[in-house]
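Propose amino acids for all 166 sites.
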């Protein structure tokens, strides 16, 4: 082992700050899973003959959101423009949260300047800071934004459901 530089293993394991970080990351992941399930449930409700729940119950946002979008677009002529636009905006917002969810779920958590920060692996194995310091407050904000997006999507779909276009 001479000449080999040992890696620095400053991770959350055993660190007193570990549980709050783990809980915050968990909230982001669980909230995003709930958002995906809400979209899939509405897609399946609007088009039960497509058996989307069976097809996509293990799929992610990349498959679920476009399926719901296509279903709503198929009835766009029967949906008021403002209602249709809000549904499309709610779905677009849900899709836009994918990157932050992935940063939270797959980022590396290491100590930088005495504080935990999210890092993202580079292809050559070095780490770099992602978009500056992403701390526990960032995680809390992402989890909250996902909850709000879930509510927005659900409300938009409820409005469409009340139109009886499906």
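Proposal:
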């Amino acid at each position: 082992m001479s000449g080999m530089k040992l890696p620095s293993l400053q991770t959350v394991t055993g660190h007193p700050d570990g549980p709050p970080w783990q809980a915050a990351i968990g909230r982001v992941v669980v909230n995003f899973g709930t958002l995906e399930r809400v979209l899939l449930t509405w897609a399946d409700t609007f088009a039960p003959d497509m058996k989307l729940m069976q097809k996509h119950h293990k799929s992610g946002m990349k498959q679920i959101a476009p399926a719901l979008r296509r279903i709503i677009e198929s009835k766009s002529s029967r949906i008021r423009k403002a209602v249709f636009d809000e549904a499309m905006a709610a779905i677009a917002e849900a899709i836009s949260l994918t990157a932050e969810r992935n940063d939270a779920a797959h980022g590396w958590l290491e100590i930088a300047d005495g504080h935990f920060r999210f890092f993202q692996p580079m292809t050559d194995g070095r780490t770099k800071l992602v978009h500056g310091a992403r701390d526990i407050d960032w995680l809390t904000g992402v989890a909250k934004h996902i909850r709000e997006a879930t509510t927005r999507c659900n409300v938009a779909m409820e409005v469409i459901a009340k139109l009886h276009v499906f």
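The two ends are 67 Å apart (CA to CA). Helices lie at 18-46, 52-56, 61-73, 81-96, 98-106, 136-162.
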